[in-house]
Design brief:
Chain lengths: ~200, ~200
DNA sequence: TAAAATTTTTAACATTTGTTAAAATTATTC
DNA sequence: GAATAATTTTAACAAATGTTAAAAATTTTA
């Protein structure tokens, strides 16, 4: 859900969102609980093209994207399908891995130089058991991520690739130029050739 | 996820799952907390074709399906797309409505005579604030529903309509005959004509 | 049980989209 | 900045699926 109602600043041209704002994006949290979450977080400075999550590896931890851009995708032997692009303030998570401690479905790469905060799953789970505010915050996180995923599904089911491309252009005007067309095409659910036809404006 | 590891009985030919087992399907719960949840639940006996949830109405409550079969679908002016079929032990919820108290996306109808348990959202939310076990159970519910939705998305992205039809036949052998082909076709993401061709075995 | 209504299959055709491959453009590297 | 590599566009064709409409089959109703 991008940078909705966050208090953010610019550094050069880069949007940077604080970790506390990433947390509060899901649900109000009292300062004590924020502090507990911050204590199990680690700040990482990552280069463009860094790999955060691989589908064949267990990746239980959660990442919050403070700045930059990420791509989430599924992969099989013969195909790669982009599920989502995530902008600052968003969360990078392989839900299946996070919940079940087994390899999940998603791969997540960073498309730009980025700042991410990594939260240790084991310590987070133990906070869930002891701090009811954090337990409810974690519930909200799952609920809101569900709704976001549902909105993506709805959009894919009911909107044309052309309409969804226009949406993307509006949502990520500053990034879209630097994202490979193949990634965008698989996000839209069409071949790269079809996306080229869309861009060439053959209605 | 159907009737995985539940202790169920048959009544005539009907699978019936207890409310406590519906709860425990998500996460272990202690007897006290189960009791608290049961106290805010209401049992409903519903006829085939009953409407549980409408996308234009606020439907904050959650339903657990003890027996019968439900269909979840999205609808626009010109199209109706089936998202999921839910069998006993499953949960019927419009997540957006449940979380945001506004009309959600899904319509949910019962395709068979069914028994459902309705949980009052307001009372559930107040249990979330006072009972940390229930808060974590609610978190698990959202997380696992997310994963189920993700699996459906994966299946739709990577499997052919033919493969998915075979999966359906395997998962709901006893129901599939009574479900309209139009519903199944829209679940598979193809036209009804194409589904007829699949059934006629034109490979 | 016959008639009506609903659902499913089949047919014919048009359209869209994918595939492969080559040309054009843009970006990267030395 | 020239040469190389990577990416994007265009073209030509084939194949799959949607659309419309009618026929067949099944279910419901009177």
């Amino acid at each position: 859900m991008g940078w909705g109602n966050f208090t953010f600043r610019k550094m050069g041209e880069k949007v940077v969102i604080s970790l506390a704002d990433c947390f509060q994006g899901y649900h109000f949290l009292n300062p004590t609980s924020i502090d507990r979450l911050e204590q199990i977080s680690e700040k990482l400075i990552c280069k463009r093209n860094s790999v955060l999550i691989r589908q064949d590896k267990i990746q239980k931890d959660i990442y919050f994207l403070a700045s930059g851009l990420a791509r989430v995708y599924y992969e099989t032997a013969d195909r790669q399908i982009t599920l989502d692009f995530v902008s600052p303030g968003g969360t990078l998570i392989s839900m299946n891995s996070y919940v079940h401690d087994t390899p999940g479905y998603e791969n997540i790469d960073l498309l730009e130089d980025s700042i991410v905060y990594k939260i240790d799953q084991k310590q987070l789970f133990s906070l869930y058991e002891s701090d009811i505010a954090i337990a409810n915050w974690g519930r909200k996180m799952a609920e809101l991520e569900f709704i976001k995923a549902e909105q993506r599904t709805m959009s894919k089911l009911f909107n044309t690739a052309q309409e969804r491309y226009a949406e993307l252009l509006e949502k990520y005007p500053q990034y879209i130029q630097r994202i490979k067309l193949g990634y965008i095409a698989s996000y839209l659910g069409v071949s790269q050739v079809t996306l080229s036809r869309i861009r060439a404006n053959i209605p």
